[in-house]
Specification:
Length: 165
């Protein structure tokens, strides 16, 4: 009987260690709302790599999950502006230092946001659905990780559409 109890305890401890190791490097996230349409949809689940930025920062075009004080929870949007750049949205199109950014992944929008300079160690992040998405300048430490794989619903299974330039 002692052997069986010992085996159960070892199995439970091993399962907890494996679970904690996985949660250290990956995180699942449910897309909420339509701010990432047409690329990610409400109710879609993605796996987020927490180790993607251990050796370098986010790149323009990355879809990231980040914590926002404004909403008091994690959000998923796309990085468009890097530290030190001036970012402006004119009629739904992003301009970096007065040069239009090629974004084949967004839909139509007429939204305009005045120019903002991105401070060091911060990123300009906005959703793909520019008609409804919010934009934020986010400190690097608030970025949870890079969206990597969509796994639910099964018809959406595959790589998340990150675009790096």
């Amino acid at each position: 009987m002692k052997t069986v109890i010992r085996e159960i305890i070892i199995t439970i401890l091993l399962a907890v260690v494996i679970f904690m190791a996985i949660r250290t490097v990956a995180h699942n996230f449910e897309v909420s709302g339509n701010s990432m349409e047409p690329n990610l949809h409400h109710g879609e689940f993605v796996i987020v790599s927490k180790i993607a930025y251990w050796f370098g920062g986010p790149e323009r075009g990355d879809i990231v999950v980040y914590y926002t004080d404004r909403l008091q929870h994690d959000v998923i949007h796309r990085v468009v502006g890097l530290p030190g750049e001036t970012v402006e949205i004119k009629n739904g199109e992003v301009y970096i230092n007065d040069e239009k950014l090629d974004e084949p992944y967004i839909g139509e929008s007429s939204r305009t946001v005045p120019p903002k300079e991105v401070p060091g160690d911060h990123y300009y992040i906005v959703g793909d659905n520019r008609g409804v998405a919010s934009w934020e300048i986010v400190p690097e430490e608030d970025i949870v990780g890079k969206a990597w794989l969509s796994y639910w619903p099964t018809k959406e299974w595959g790589s998340v559409p990150n675009y790096s330039w």
